[in-house]
Design goal:
This protein has 236 residues and is an alpha+beta fold. Helix content is 30%, strand content 23%.
């Protein structure tokens, strides 16, 4: 298993496995219209938070996540250093997959391309006030591809037509303190996916807005360098 190139990344689909080779002649899809997602009631959200806090770490899930990170073929020294740090973190923290691990915890995210693979869908995160890819906490699950896919669906409403089975990027970044939550690190394992033709997104309560961007448009947003790196790799 290795970091997938633009030509050789493995994509999974409900119908077939296909190559992510870019179809330059494909017609660019129109920007999807957004709709406000139903707002979850606060009692439901609080109950969910309590369930997550009560969750106990599962060593089998930790080893599952560790195997994914260990198999990653880092394309540069920066990601190689992040890979080594994530592996050490997993070895040192049996609860590394849980958000109750206060120094930090593993997350998984997904960069979504449109059907022509000429644009990416980003969301403006309400709490962090940043344009980001979709992603979130592992919450005890070691299948990080499953985590990334779940977060993509929850935050965009889009079920991808193709989803790379292996991560293509790693990053560690600091999350600032917020209310009762101290500053901590997110150790992020990142995947790539493709949206179906004419996909329509739905904005969740975590986002101010969602928009499709070309590589040139995204470069003007002042993105985090690691996200800019992902977009450059994905769109060339």
């Amino acid at each position: 298993m290795s970091c997938p190139s633009k030509e050789t990344a493995r994509w999974s689909s409900t119908t077939e496995t296909t190559s992510p080779t870019r179809t330059g002649s494909a017609t660019r899809a129109k920007t999807s219209t957004s709709a406000r997602a139903p707002t979850a009631s606060s009692p439901v959200a609080e109950t969910r938070a309590e369930e997550l806090r009560a969750k106990a770490p599962d060593p089998r899930e930790v080893q599952r996540a560790r195997a994914i990170v260990a198999a990653f073929n880092a394309p540069d020294p920066e990601q190689a250093a992040d890979q080594e740090r994530i592996l050490r973190f997993l070895d040192d923290h049996q609860d590394a997959l849980l958000r109750t691990c206060l120094p930090g915890h593993l997350t998984a995210s997904c960069l979504l391309l449109d059907a022509s693979r000429e644009r990416v869908l980003l969301h403006h995160h309400r709490k962090l006030d940043l344009w980001l890819q979709f992603g979130g906490h592992a919450d005890g699950e070691g299948d990080l591809a499953s985590v990334a896919r779940r977060e993509l669906l929850e935050e965009s409403g889009i079920n991808p037509s193709e989803f790379a089975s292996e991560p293509f990027d790693l990053d560690i970044h600091l999350i600032p303190a917020h209310k009762s939550e101290p500053a901590h690190e997110h150790l992020d394992v990142r995947y790539m996916a493709t949206a179906p033709q004419k996909a329509t997104f739905v904005r969740s309560e975590e986002s101010n807005s969602l928009e499709w961007f070309t590589g040139q448009e995204a470069s003007a947003l002042g993105l985090d360098p690691s996200l800019a790196r992902m977009i450059e790799f994905a769109l060339g």
